[in-house]
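Section 5.1 Outputs to date
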Amino acid sequence: MEKFELLRRALWFLVEIFSLGLVLLIFVYFLLGQSAGEFIVGLIGNIGVFAKATGENAIIAILIIISLVLYLNNKQR
């Protein structure tokens, strides 16, 4: 069980790092706009395509689920 907990913490740490990286890249795009570079502009384009393909209701549902998971994790501590 201890290995499972260690694996869970490591995976959660990776999720947090990648999420932070994504937020930082979006922030760079907001600061620099189209001159941010091909990679960042492509990333923002892909986020836009994903948002259009999933629709507003799906995005809202995902955000509600994420909020509930975070709330329940904080409540357990």
